[in-house]
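Q: I'm building a small set of examples for a reading group on sequence design. Run inverse folding on the following structure and report the sequence directly after it, with nothing in between.
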């Protein structure tokens, strides 16, 4: 079976992928279909398309669609975002009320497993890499499959603190 073929036995098939282009395409498609919330989790987002024009456009379109729409992002070390993702930082400045970034504390970062590299859309769809150092992963389309990851994200969110900000405060 090709990695792009749906996995058998489910009315809501999972689709495996193994390249950056496929990861990016599944993530953009999922965000393009988002209705209320986008949750993103990764150690540092260095291998995510956060600085691509397509990703910026997809997130902006989502955030403009409704005042109720939200993006929640969690990183163990968010420094890459501030230094290497100016398009994402521009969105953060424009939509700071709806684009929330948090950082897991050091003691929680130890539990921030290598498989914590995923995007959850509306608590029902997910694009997940099996390990944050590879591009192999799966796109899931069933709330029952996504549920445990929703719980993990919520737990991490509850323990995290404000992370990267669109503004720099100084004296």
């Amino acid at each position: 079976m090709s990695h792009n073929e749906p996995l058998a036995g489910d009315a809501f098939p999972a689709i495996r992928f193994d390249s950056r282009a496929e990861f990016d395409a599944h993530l953009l498609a999922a965000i393009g279909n988002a209705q209320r919330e986008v949750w993103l989790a990764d150690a540092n987002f260095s291998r995510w398309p956060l600085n691509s024009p397509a990703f910026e456009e997809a997130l902006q379109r989502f955030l403009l669609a409704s005042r109720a729409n939200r993006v929640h992002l969690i990183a163990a070390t968010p420094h890459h975002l501030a230094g290497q993702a100016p398009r994402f930082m521009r969105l953060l400045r424009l939509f700071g009320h709806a684009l929330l970034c948090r950082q897991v504390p050091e003691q929680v970062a130890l539990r921030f497993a290598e498989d914590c590299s995923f995007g959850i859309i509306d608590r029902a769809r997910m694009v997940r890499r099996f390990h944050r150092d590879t591009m192999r992963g799966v796109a899931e389309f069933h709330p029952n499959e996504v549920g445990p990851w929703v719980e993990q994200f919520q737990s991490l969110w509850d323990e995290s603190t404000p992370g990267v900000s669109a503004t720099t405060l100084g004296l």
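DSSP finds six helices and eight strands in the chain.
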